[in-house]
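Form 12-C: Joint structure prediction
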Amino acid sequence: MSGGYLGFNTLLLHNVKGSYSHGSTHIPIYQSSAFKHESAEELEKIFTNKSMGFSYTRINNPTIEDFEKRVTALEGGVGAVACSSGMSALFNALMNVLQSGDEVVASAGLYGGTVELFTELEAFGITTRYVAHNLPDEYEKLITEKTRVIFAETIGNPKLDVTDISALANVAHSHNIPLIIDNTTATPYLVKPLSLGADVVVHSSSKYINGNSDAISGILISGGKFKWDDRYPGLIPYKKFGPLAYIAKLRAGLFRSTGGCLSPQNAFLNILGLETLGLRLERECDNALELARHLKELDDSFVVNYPGLEESAYHKLATDQLNGRYGAIVTVRVGSKERAFAIMNEIKIPYILSNIGDTKTLVLHPASTIAVTLSKEEQEQSGVYDDLIRISVGIEDIKDLKEDFTNAVNNTK
Ligand SMILES: *Cc1c(COP(=O)(O)O)cnc(C)c1O
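Section 2 - Result
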């Protein structure tokens, strides 16, 4: 199926060619560490890239490859590598091109784990400079002759700042630097960053792609268009692979040598989850918009942050860039940490836990959890305040969520 004329939800179900054994409608879980071959010559060909095939699951596996193909098609890329976690995918995506002495320019509203990763990379001679405001001009000001990657999230978690991907890709490319986008919070349902000029897209597929919070995983997808020059010396031997140079280098090099592979079982769970990505996101985004509006009405002292609200500084950009919906994360400032805790403890339906992208609504107090190691100033730069609750909105009936929040707010006045 070419897929050119099919809608998002149809593609989710039918975007992989080929049929599985016995007429099975799902790919089997190839729970096998290694793959046998008929002859020594055959295995030699696989190891020397002269024929396609599987040898060892740390490098690849049919179930994992099926997941990679599905996400590659969804994001409109040329190839993908699935990893053991979103952090592993980020590490691989970055370190496939960076080396000691290089610099990264990144947005300040990043996921805390990613900021911690950039801090870890300092020990390997890689420095990250952060823009205070997520505006393409600000990134450009921080670019030096050592900059080798521009990094941003489509919708920052939990700042909910929206990146102008096309404008940022233009800035990056005018300096011959690739743009890497973490598209976890938006998913290809809301936007396909490669089509707007990004060069590599990364997901924590533990979140919306999996959808049910039953497996940790990550994936990176290459657009295949970036022209690697000699400022990326590791890529030079792989230029013979054309658009697949970035993926070929990674799979033959860092990915295989650091061993952060996905398990076939988790790849399978992600494939199941993917089938409902469009349906879930549609419902979650609609619920998020309604809940954001409701929270504002509940108490006019609340500061509700959601790109779908007209007063959001990112509303226009999000409207232009996303597919008419605004993501499923809402944050609300309720006046004090005590009130935030009281509301969270009073709520009946949402779970208090550190995750996003579940079918169930989740609430978190970022300042005392995922952002607790950041200084006050760093917290504010990443959109975290002592009185802020982050809500990852699920697929529940919205009337139940509204009622639950209404009761919690009224009972904690
Ligand atoms: C959760 C998350 C990650 C990290 O992914 P894991 O699967 O937990 O390793 C990276 N980026 C964003 C935006 C996330 O939300």
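Section 3 - Comments
The longest strand covers residues 147-153. The first helix runs from residue 8 to 14.
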